[in-house]
Amino acid sequence: MFQGETAISVDDKGRLAIPTTYRELVAGACANRLVVTYNPFEHGCLWLFPHAEWEQVRDQVNALPSVKAAHRNLQMKLVGAAAVVEPDSAARILLPASQRSTAGIEKKAVLLGMGNKFELWSEQAHLAKIRQTLGEDDITHEMADLRL
User: Fold this and answer.
1) What is the pLDDT of residues 75-115, one digit of tens each?
2) Which of 22, 33, 70, 109 is least surrounded by CB atoms within 10 angstroms?
3) What is the pLDDT of residue 57?
4) Contact 1/116 with Cβ under 8 angstroms?
C-alpha cells in the first residue's frame, strides 16, 4: 500500500502535509483518519497507521496479558500514546507535541511508506539509521533466503 521515502517539513505548529502521492491512498484506506503513536522499537520514529489497520494492531496489543512488564510497556507506548489525526483542508495533520518532542522531530523529518503504515523519522535519527549497514551476523534465517 504505502512505500517510498519523502523528505517532510514540519511547520511551527507541528503540522506536516501528507505528500500528494499518498493523499488518495490515505483517503481511500482510512477515510482520512490516521493514528499517530510511538515506534516502540526505534528511537526517533513515530508510526502513522490508517485507522482500520490501527484497530487491528491495538486489539492485538491490548489482548496481551498485562501481568508482564514488557506487555504493559508496549501497551503504554502504542495504545496509551495513540492519537487520531485527520488532515485539514490543506492535507496537513497535526502531530501531538509530546510525541514530536520525544521523537526529536523538529523542522525536517522523513516519511517512509512501510506497506501497512508510515514511519515518521526525525531527520537525524533517519540519517543515522540509514547509514548503518547489515553485517553477516545480522542476517537472520529468513533473510538468507531473499534474492536481493
Assistant:
1) 999 999 999 999 999 999 999 999 999 999 999 999 999 99
2) 70
3) 97
4) yes
Above 90 in pLDDT, residue 148? no
Q: Which helix (H) or strand (E) holds 4?
A: strand 2-9
Residue that the C-alpha cell 485507522 belongs to:
51
User: How far is Cα 61 from Cα 71, in angstroms, rounded to an integer?
Assistant: 8
20-50 residue pLDDT tens = 999 998 998 888 999 999 999 999 999 999 9
Burial class (CB in 10 A: 0-12, 13-18, 19+), 117: buried
CATH of 2-144, one of 3.40.1550.20, 3.40.50.300, 3.40.190.10, 3.40.50.2000: 3.40.1550.20
Using CB atoms within 10 A of its CB, is residue 103 exposed (0-12), middle (13-18) or buried (19+)?
A: buried
